[in-house]
Amino acid sequence: MSIFRGSGVALVTPFKKDGSVNYDKYKELIEYHIENNTDAIITVGTTGEASTLTDEEHREVIRFTVKVVNKRIPVIAGTGSNDTSYSIELSKYSEEVGVDGLLIVTPYYNKTTQKGLINHFTAIADSVNIPIILYNVPSRTGMNISIDTVVELSKHKNIQAIKEASGDISYVTEIARLCDDNFDIYSGNDDIIVPIMSIGGSGVISVVANILPNETHNLVHEYLDGNTVKAREIQLKLNGLINSLFIETNPIPVKTAMNLLDMEVGELRAPLYEMQEENVEILVNQMRKLKMEV
After folding, report:
1. Whose CA, among 66, 86, 206, 232, lies 20 to 30 Å from 93?
2. Residue 11, exposed/middle/buried by CB under 10 A (0-12, 13-18, 19+)?
3. From the centroid of its chain, how far is CA 190?
4. pTM for the structure as a whole
5. pLDDT at 23
6. For 253-271, what is each residue's pLDDT tens digit?
7. From start to end of the chain, where are the E strands?
8. Position 1 confidence tier, pLDDT thresholds 50, 70, 90
């Protein structure tokens, strides 16, 4: 069974003025997504600025998310690390507090070989009894999971999906061809959701869903329901905004957009910094084209 089908939001982590996690706002965001048809919450991923959270914050955000969601939709926790033993520890904790799945990014900075990747992901998968989504994002990590490695890992009972964010549609097509039909593919790029759905994708783990949850949900479900022309229309309509959300490092633009919409998610944690004025103008123009009140 799929962990989810549809639009999973890669949720931002809101901060107070003193820099601490704003749990009241986080609860508000979760309720907003449930009310607006988001199909799953992905917490403490890249968009959630997990790399700047302390271990205590990381764990508490996961626990808090599970408690607030209360089984209404799936919760997937980002528990990847470039330290295998820490990823195991965090993954086991997440299972204990009740998450429905784990999102595990490839090790970054210290990188490894493809055999090292197999050992890394297998050790994590062996330590838990919940589904794992591999996360391939070479632009962030400097490392790509080879197709052969994905195929090998997909044989593990707990490794059930991949979030694919390389932007290489040929790579994704080969994964779809070579892996079992029960191995889910989620688009990690909001601008190619429809192309990935066309080769059997199950949905998206989305950044734009932070500000357009209903629209992102509708895009995926129109495709799943066989309304491919409508899905394509939504994809093309949103792509100008989607492109503007990545003109600077994610989540700088999406947090900027949320604050422009009075969602009050606070500032970014250093070393991330406020968006350049000329890029804010591009973002605002794209938001206004979609009749968003900025």
Report:
1. 206
2. buried
3. 10
4. 0.96
5. 98
6. 999 999 999 999 999 999 9
7. 6-10, 40-43, 75-78, 101-105, 132-136, 159-164, 184-187, 203-206
8. confident
Residues classed as catalytic: 135, 163
- The total number of residues shown for the chain amounts to 294
d(CA 199, CA 194): 9
Placement of tokens 């919409």 in the chain: 261
Q: What is the pLDDT of residues 116-155, one digit of tens each?
A: 999 999 999 999 999 999 999 999 999 999 999 999 999 9
Distances (CA, A) of 59 to 40, 67, 99, 143: 19, 12, 12, 26
Sign, Cα dihedral of 69, 133, 167, 84: positive
Query: Residue 192 carries which DSSP code?
Result: G
Instruction: Give the sign of the dihedral formed by CA 149, CA 151, CA 152, CA 153.
Output: positive
Q: How far apart are the first and last CA of the chain?
A: 40
Pair 95, 66: CB distance under 8 Å: no
Give the integer Cα–Cα distance in Å for 44 and 166: 20
Tokens describing residue 235: 């994809």
Cα Rg for the chain, rounded, in angstroms?
18
What is the token pair recorded at 15?
A: 């901060």
Name the 3-class secondary structure at 32. helix
- Fold for domain 6-225? TIM Barrel (3.20.20)
Q: Around Cβ 78, how many Cβ atoms within 10 Å?
A: 27
